[in-house]
């Protein structure tokens, strides 16, 4: 049997430090919690290089008496508990007495503190667990702790630290959670010499949310408060319409301590059931006040995992809190719709009369005159005779276009103002090139000449965006086929030889776009946004996005740091330019935060997939017959497009034999 040895003190301290101090954010969390336990209502935090080289935390708490300064850095020395019964009713944030000892074991620490009633403060320096200095110091009441050179004596652990910006964002995340859990404490966060956060400490959670998470996020929240059998839940939840693509903006606190609770997540989302879109999640900032004896916070060194004596009671309290808030605070989504005006808006221009005529200009509202109205009001014979008969009715353009157009009409003025002249009408369209409005039709033509196949009614078509004439010339001809039509505006029916094909147009188009994006790496067609989109992210997502700016750029997204947990989108792929760009950024940020260790090609594939899914034509969208034919041709001539990026088939084959068998013909 191996011999059992008692570990030396310095080695035991390093092991204990490994449980408490993982990165600079761990140090900030422990010291700020100690400051709050000391009764501080003002805390200032300053870091440099992500906190790796410098951390300074100053508070105006009760301070530490000189006689207790050395004890504070001894392992398991604490003023929070004195006997085992105290573990059953822990209301302080810290209680183990490991933080300062663990920090001092792996860094250079300097403390300046003065307790109430002391005339002179104390300065204490300790490095790697060894005391270096204990002396008088002039300082205000409270404590200032300076931590330098984390892991300077354990280089093996230092190499696991991430980039400065990543570590700084992790620190910012800790500060955000502490600020939200204690709105009565004013917190100032200085990052590399610049103010990153300041909360007023007025005790109002709403103003703290505004300072920490931004005004745009704060506007989407509604107040929530409920009490059930001694369990009180209060805070804010988001409206169903403002749900997010992930759970990163869900903050739960137990007795003003940040926790991770599966019970809270399920209860909250159950309250939103049937009110929120699939794949979306509500946001919240909820504080649970419960009897300290009914919870156990002594589960993990990080103190974020807790156990409840009655999980069902916690579930019900959160559920009914959110449900009640939604019934009272959630309002229908409002849309401002302008009342309809008259079809023609007349504008009078009064230039000098030319040749005794007065010009009247009429501006036609194109959206009020559709192609269907034209064919209902004008027959083919009337249309052919229009140039000769000069009808008095206002002419309507036969061109299928979405461009604005103006109708210029020169009419006969009043007899007493100008001489009588023949009535004339002039029809002008303002376009990039001059186009005749009335197609030339031979008198012997029995029907109106229809537009060429490449002219599509843009007002009724959702463009697939996959037609490429340069590529079509290289595509080999497919087996003869016939497009029968479309079922449920989702499935395209195609007859090909002895088979009937059912094509899922969304799945097929999604795969086409996915392959197109992958083939055009670094050359994806993008669009510069006239108004850049600003998105508020959690600090974990914010850090992940900043780490992958080059990856997003390759995928067509130009994102910049906007500071304080916000990023700004300046450019995006043209395929998604008309979509919910804020939702796109949040979805990408959530993926990058959860998959930091993925290789760059895998990240790019996922981004291409997400972009293709959003840009692809949706089930239920109307598609013209011409586009259906082009789409089917491109699909059938590409044998690689058989599954969508999710793995679902893009088409199903039914043989003629199978159909006849079901009808009893064979």
Characterise this structure.
The chain has 666 residues and is α+β, with helices and mostly antiparallel strands. The protein has 20 helices and 25 strands. The chain folds into four domains: 9-198, Heat Shock Protein 90 (2-Layer Sandwich), CATH 3.30.565; 220-328, Ribosomal Protein S5, domain 2 (2-Layer Sandwich), CATH 3.30.230.10; 345-350 and 357-442, no CATH class; 481-636, 2-Layer Sandwich (Ribosomal Protein S8, Chain: A, domain 1). The strands form six sheets. The chain has an eight-stranded mixed sheet with strand order 5-4-3-6-2-1-7-8, covered by helices on one side. It has a five-stranded mixed sheet with strand order 9-10-13-11-12, with helices on both faces. It is elongated. The protein starts with 8 loop residues before the first helix and ends with a helix.
In short, what is this structure?
This protein has 20 helices and 25 strands. With 666 residues, it is α+β, with helices and mostly antiparallel strands. Residues 340-376, 389-426, 428-451, 453-463 and 465-473 have low confidence and may be disordered.
Rg, Cα atoms, Å? 35 Å
Structural class: alpha+beta
Number-wise, the strands total 25
Level-2 CATH architecture of the largest domain: 2-Layer Sandwich
Unreliable sequence segments: 340-376, 389-426, 428-451, 453-463, 465-473
The name of the CATH superfamily of the largest domain reads: Histidine kinase-like ATPase, C-terminal domain
Q: Report the total helices.
A: 20
CATH topology grouping of the largest domain: Heat Shock Protein 90
Strand order of the largest sheet: 5-4-3-6-2-1-7-8
Question: End-to-end span in angstroms?
Answer: 80 Å
What would you call the shape? Answer: elongated
What does the average pLDDT come to? Answer: 78
Number of domains: 4
**Proportion of residues in extended strands:** 15-25%
The share of residues in helices is: 25-40%
Largest sheet: 8 strands, mixed
> What is the highest CATH level, the class of the largest domain?
Alpha Beta
């Amino acid at each position: 049997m191996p011999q059992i040895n008692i570990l030396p003190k310095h080695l035991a301290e390093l092991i204990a430090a490994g449980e408490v101090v993982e990165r600079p954010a761990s140090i900030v969390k422990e010291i700020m919690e100690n400051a709050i336990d000391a009764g501080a209502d003002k805390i200032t935090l300053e870091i440099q290089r992500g906190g790796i080289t410098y951390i300074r935390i100053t508070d105006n708490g009760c301070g530490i008496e000189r006689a207790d300064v050395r004890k504070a850095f001894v392992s398991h020395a604490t003023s929070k508990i004195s006997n085992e019964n105290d573990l059953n009713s822990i209301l302080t944030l810290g209680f183990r007495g490991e933080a300062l000892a663990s920090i001092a074991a792996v860094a250079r620490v300097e403390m300046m503190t003065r307790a109430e009633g002391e005339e002179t403060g104390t300065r204490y320096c300790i490095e790697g667990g060894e005391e270096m200095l204990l002396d008088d110091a002039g300082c205000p009441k409270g404590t200032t702790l300076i931590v330098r050179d984390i892991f300077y004596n354990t280089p093996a652990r230092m190499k696991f630290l991430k980039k400065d910006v990543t570590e700084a964002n992790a620190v910012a995340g800790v500060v955000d959670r502490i600020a939200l859990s204690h709105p009565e404490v004013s917190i100032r966060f200085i990052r590399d010499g610049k103010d990153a956060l300041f909360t007023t400490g007025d005790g109002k959670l709403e103003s703290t949310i505004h300072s920490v998470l931004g005004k745009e996020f704060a506007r989407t929240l509604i107040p929530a408060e409920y009490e059930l059998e001694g369990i009180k839940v209060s805070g804010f939840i988001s409206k169903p319409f403002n749900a997010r693509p992930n759970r990163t903006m869900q903050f739960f606190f137990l007795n003003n301590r940040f926790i991770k609770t599966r019970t809270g997540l399920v209860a909250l989302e159950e309250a939103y059931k049937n009110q929120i879109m699939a794949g979306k999640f509500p946001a919240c900032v909820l504080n649970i006040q419960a009897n300290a004896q009914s919870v156990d916070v002594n589960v993990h060194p990080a103190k974020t995992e807790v156990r409840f004596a009655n999980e069902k009671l916690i579930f019900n309290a959160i559920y009914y809190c959110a449900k009640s808030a939604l019934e009272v605070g959630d309002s229908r989504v409002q849309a401002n719709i302008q009342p309809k005006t008259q079809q023609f808006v007349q504008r009078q221009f009064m230039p000098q009369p030319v040749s005794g005529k007065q010009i009247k200009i009429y501006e036609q509202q194109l959206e009020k005159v559709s192609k269907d109205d034209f064919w209902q009001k004008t027959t083919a014979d009337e249309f052919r005779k229009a140039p000769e008969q000069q009808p008095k009715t206002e002419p309507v353009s036969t061109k299928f276009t979405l461009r604005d157009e103006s109708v210029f009409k020169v009419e006969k003025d009043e007899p007493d103002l100008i001489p009588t002249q023949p009535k004339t009408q002039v029809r002008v369209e303002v376009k990039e090139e001059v186009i005749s409005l009335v197609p030339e039709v031979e008198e012997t033509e029995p029907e109106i000449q229809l537009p060429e196949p490449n002219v599509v009614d843009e007002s009724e078509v959702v463009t697939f965006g996959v037609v490429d004439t340069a590529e079509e010339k290289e595509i080999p001809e497919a087996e003869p086929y016939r497009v029968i039509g479309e079922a449920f505006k989702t499935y395209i029916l195609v007859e090909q030889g002895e088979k009937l094909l059912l094509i899922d147009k969304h799945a097929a188009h999604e795969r086409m776009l996915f392959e197109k994006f992958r083939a055009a790496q670094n050359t994806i067609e993008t669009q510069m946004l006239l108004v850049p989109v600003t998105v508020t992210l959690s600090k974990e997502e914010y850090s992940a996005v900043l780490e992958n700016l080059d990856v997003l750029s390759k995928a067509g997204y130009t994102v910049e740091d906007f500071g304080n947990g916000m990023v700004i989108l300046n450019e995006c792929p043209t395929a998604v330019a008309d979509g919910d760009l804020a939702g796109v950024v949040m979805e990408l940020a959530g993926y990058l935060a959860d998959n930091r260790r993925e290789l760059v090609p895998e990240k790019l594939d996922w981004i291409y997939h997400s972009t293709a899914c959003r840009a692809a034509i949706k089930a239920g969208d109307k598609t013209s017959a011409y586009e259906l034919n082009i789409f089917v041709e491109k699909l059938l001539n590409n044998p690689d497009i058989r599954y969508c990026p999710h793995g679902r088939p893009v088409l199903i084959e039914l043989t003629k034999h199978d159909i006849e068998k079901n009808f009893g013909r064979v």
